């Protein structure tokens, strides 16, 4: 009874000091909100983290990494302040309304941030799928986030203006032209993302080449507005998404998936070194197992041809004969067919191109059986090292422009340089 009387006296005393009663109410509200925030962080969030570790969808810690529950837990103190601020005595009605609107705006922001984090989790889960590399959804999720933030902004504006969201949307149509101008890159990128995904133009991990933008490397990220390419020198090139639709680029995915990488290179031969094989050269080249079968077959064809001509074959103009160039071409063909680094199920040929002033091009067209860059370069270099070194065995020479050493060997000497003062006197 005595305690009850003391409380009545204290309450009566407070009635004479409204500002003290108001401060006490605010203090109690702040303490309750702080306790709710502490419980949410240290009890609810920690408990959910332990529980989420048992869920299969959180195998890589996506829920914890994107802090879905951490963000959602921040809504609790905002709700307490929104509900409790009206219970604080002697607080001006205008201030109460402002605090309620701020708390409401904070609730909207927390909800949108939580949904955004959940979309990130969804993208992380989607990337576990085996076909996720072919059709990434990151760009579409970013578009959803943009729409969510726009709706959130409209709801906050509607809260402060005390108007319905649909009323704001009705007036929003008048700003469509301005918004299309502001978000034109986003709209173009969205359309480009749909086209890229529909036509399967680019995937994560593809090697693309875009010389106009100095891009030559692997695609490491695809978003709504940009695509990142890691070049082979480890630099990063950022390409606007719509440029992949409007500009020309090369995608090397077909080469990677085929299992072979093309070698297309020619050796320029001196045309004056091409001649018919004599008996000594024939016997020398026949000792190669790569040419034995070819030479026997060609020799039989030549004998049959000459027998068919009869007396006319007595003239060398009517006879068929082996050439060192044709034999060398057959040697390259057999050499490539026995090479362990060449793909035997793809196109393999050795052909002559049109003669030029720089020699006779003998082109090698084949594919390696591995698309690795280092392996490809090593195989290609080994092949041409061997062919250049073995050319003299066929009596052939490589064509190249004469150098100073070549001219000196031919007896040409350069006149000595005249002193500068002599040249000036001569001009005078």
UniProtKB/TrEMBL annotation:
All copies of the Mechanosensitive ion channel MscS domain together span 185-253
In its UniProt record, a GO molecular function of this protein is: mechanosensitive monoatomic ion channel activity
Record keywords: Membrane, Transmembrane, Transmembrane helix
Topologically, how does it sit relative to the membrane? Multi-pass membrane protein
Q: Which SUPFAM superfamilies match?
A: Sm-like ribonucleoproteins
Keyword Ligase carried by entry: no
Record field: transmembrane: 20-40, 72-91, 103-122, 143-162, 168-194
Gene3D superfamilies in the record, alphabetically? Answer: 2.30.30.60
Question: Which protein family is it in?
Answer: Belongs to the MscS (TC 1.A.23) family.
Q: What is this protein called?
A: Mechanosensitive ion channel protein MscS
Q: Which organism is it from?
A: Alkanindiges hydrocarboniclasticus
